[in-house]
Amino acid sequence: MPDTPDSNQWKTLDKDLRRISQIEYATSYVARPLIAPGIALVFMVIAGLGAALFFGTYPNNTVVVVAAVFGAYMALNIGANDVANNMGPAVGANALTMSGAIVIAAICESAGALLAGGDVVSTISKGIIDPAGVSEAQIFTWAMMAALISAALWVNLATRIGAPVSTTHSVVGGVMGAGIAAAGLTAVNWPTMGAIAASWVISPVLGGAIAAAFLAFIKSRIIYREDKIASAQRWVPVLVGIMAGTFATYLGLKGLSRVVSVNLGAALLIGLGVGVVSYGFARPMIRRQSAGMENRNRSLKSLFALPLVLSAALLSFAHGANDVANAVGPLAAIVHANEFGVVSGQVAIPMWVMVIGAFGISFGLFLFGPKLIRMVGSQITKLNPMRAYCVALSAAITVIVASWLGLPVSSTHIAVGGVFGVGFFREWYMEKRLRNNSGNGGTAKRIPLEERRRRKLVRRSHFMTIVAAWVVTVPAAGAMSAVIFLFLKTVIR
C-alpha cells in the first residue's frame, strides 16, 4: 500500500512520541540520584521552620533556626553512617532483608531517642574544653555551631567513601577544634583527649577479641561436633541467655538513663536475672525448633536467626537513646545559650529538638543507609547468622566492660572491630586446619602464596580505608571546626 499524506503524518508523530519518551526516560534516570538529597533537604527546611515556630519569640532566633537546620543535617548523617553498624551484620547474614532492617532500625532508633534519650546533655562534650574559655554566649554559640557543621560534614564525607566512622569522635573533634580556635591549646582537657585517642585502639581490638572468642566457642562446641543438633540444643539456649542478660545490662547502663538511673552493680544483677529467665524460655523453644532438623550447618543458622534480629533491634534502641545527643547536643546548647544568654555545663534538651534528632536519624537511615549496611554486612568479610551473632554480642559486652573500666569507647569502632575479629579468626582457623591436615599426612595439596593471599577472608583494602578514616576523624573534624569557627567569628558579628 503506497504511503499517503495521512500515513506519513502518523509516522512522523510516532517518531516524535518516541523521542519524547526517550527524553522522559533520560530525565527520570538523571533525576533518580537526586531524590534522596531532595527529601533530605526538605527535612532540613522543615526542621528550620519548626525551630522558627518554637523559638520565634526570642531574640537571635535566626541563629537557632540555622543551628536546627545543621542539627537535622547531622542527624541525617548519623542515620546514614552509624546505624549501619547495628543492622549490617544481620543483613549480611541474610537474617533480615534490607527493607526489613531499615524498618526495624528506624522504629527502634526513634523509640530509643524519644523514650529513653537523655534529657540532659553536656554542652562541653564530656569535659573536652574548659567552659571558662568560651564563657561568652556568642563565642560559645559560634563554637557549638562550628562543631556541629564540621562533624556533619566529616560524617557525610566518610559515608560517601564507604567508611563507617564514629560520630561521637566527630563531635569530639569538632568541639576540640572550635575550643582551640576560641581559647587556645590550654582550653583543651588533654588527658580526656588522650583517653579518647586510646579508645581508637581499645574499642576495635576488644570488640574483635570478644567476637572471635564467641565464634571459637561456637565452632568447638556446636559446629564441629558429630551431633550438631544435640550440641545446639544444649548450648544455643545458653548463648541466648548470655545475649539477653548482656543486653539487659547494656540497656540499663546506656539506654535507659532518662527512665531510670542504675549503676553498674545493679545493671549486672538485672542482666543476670533476665539471662536466667531467658535461658528458661529458650531451652524448650530451641528443642521444638530443632526437632527433625538435618545434622548440618544450614540447620544451625536458622537457630541463630531470631536471636540475631532481636540483638540488632536492641542495639538500635540503645544507639538511639545514647547517640542522639551527638546530633542534638550542640543544638540544645545553642538554644539554651540564646534563650538565657548564659553558658551552662548541663542543659535540658527540648522535646522539639529531640524530635529533630530522632526523625533525622530515621530519614538518614532510610535514604542513605543501605550503602554502609552493605559495607559492614558483606563487603568486609562474609557473615552468617552465627558470625553476625558474635559481632552483636561482642558490641554489647565491650560497652559494659568499657563502662566498668571507665574508658570512652565508640560503638562504631566496637561493631566494625567485631566484624574484623570474626574475619581474621576465620583466616587463622583456616590456616591452622590446613597446616594440621598437611602435618597429619593429609592429601591437601600445597597452595601457592599468591593463591593464599587471594583467598584471604578479610578485604585488606576496606580494612586500610576504615582504619585510616578512624585515625583522621578527630584531627580532620577539629581542623574543619577551627576554620568554620574563625569564619563565623570574623564574618558574622
Automatic annotation (TrEMBL):
Q: Which residues cross the membrane?
A: 34-55, 62-80, 139-159, 171-190, 196-215, 235-253, 259-282, 303-321, 349-368, 388-407, 463-488
Q: Which top-level group of life is the source organism from?
A: Bacteria
InterPro entries in UniProt? Phos_transporter
Q: Where in the cell is it found?
A: Membrane
Query: Pfam families, alphabetically?
Result: PHO4
UniProt main location, coarse: membrane
Q: Which GO terms describe its molecular function?
A: phosphate transmembrane transporter activity
Secretion signal, residue range per the UniProt entry: none
> What membrane topology was assigned to this protein in its record?
Multi-pass membrane protein
Q: GO cellular component terms?
A: membrane
Q: What are the alphabetically sorted keywords of the record?
A: Membrane, Phosphate transport, Transmembrane, Transmembrane helix, Transport
For this entry, list what GO says about its biological process.
Answer: phosphate ion transmembrane transport
Q: What family is this?
A: Belongs to the inorganic phosphate transporter (PiT) (TC 2.A.20) family.
This chain belongs to the protein called: Phosphate transporter
Q: Which organism is it from?
A: Roseovarius halotolerans
